[in-house]
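User: Predict structure, ligand magnesium ion.
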Amino acid sequence: MLELDNVSVRFGGLTAVDRVTLKVGSHDVIGLVGANGAGKTTLFNAISGLVRPTGGAIRFEGRDIMATPMYQRARLGLGRSFQIPQPMHELTVRENLIVAQRFGTGKVDMRKIDEILDFTSLANKAERDAASELALTELKALEVAKALATNPKLLLLDEVLAGLETNGKRRFMGMLKDLHAKFGVGIVMIEHDIETISNLCQRVAVLNFGQLIADGAPDTVFRDPAVIESYTGASHA
Ligand SMILES: Nc1ncnc2c1ncn2[C@@H]1O[C@H](COP(=O)(O)OP(=O)(O)OP(=O)(O)O)[C@@H](O)[C@H]1O
Ligand SMILES: [Mg+2]
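Assistant: Predicted complex:
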């Protein structure tokens, strides 16, 4: 469904993403890991259209999307969440989902929004102000809900579990498992926790200084000495 072919992103002298080649199938659940500053979020930004790659090619369902603007990528079925929750100010939870849905589909389907509110356990907060009245777990759930509201075929999740306590994390993991089954979406999730990845993903890809250094089954990849070294070596954040 998604094909990255030698994708690079340079910021001045810094190569944040370095010739990454990766294929994502329509039913894949893939973990994307790497040390702080390894280029994970920048790779998501390149896929979703927030930054323009300085080299390589990106195809989605066989179509070259390198020059496709962000909202059109959303309409093709590329959904994403943000590492730092970004609810829209002065809007309720429901209104945030309406805006996201309109962005991703061009129309509003309130039945679908109610379904997403239920699924993400936000139904009882639907009419609350999203920016000021939600706890961290709910803000994270809203990030996933907004991404779902765009009606994606492929969902890019940027550290949606980070910062949650054990119970919140467990509930969230259950939700992510169901999400794949219920909505039939492919998922690429950036996540630091090895156990979480091993639990949720059939495949894990590892970035190190912008380069893809491993791509395979979690139990194989997490035993790879180069991967362990990239994790325990000096952080370059
Ligand atoms: N807009 C930008 N302009 C300049 N440099 C940037 C920009 N965005 C990211 N970078 C740099 O690119 C590198 C990769 O950053 P990125 O945010 O993609 O890392 P990451 O793997 O998501 O890290 P983290 O785990 O901390 O979220 C870093 O060195 C970062 O400082
Ligand atoms: Mg990041």
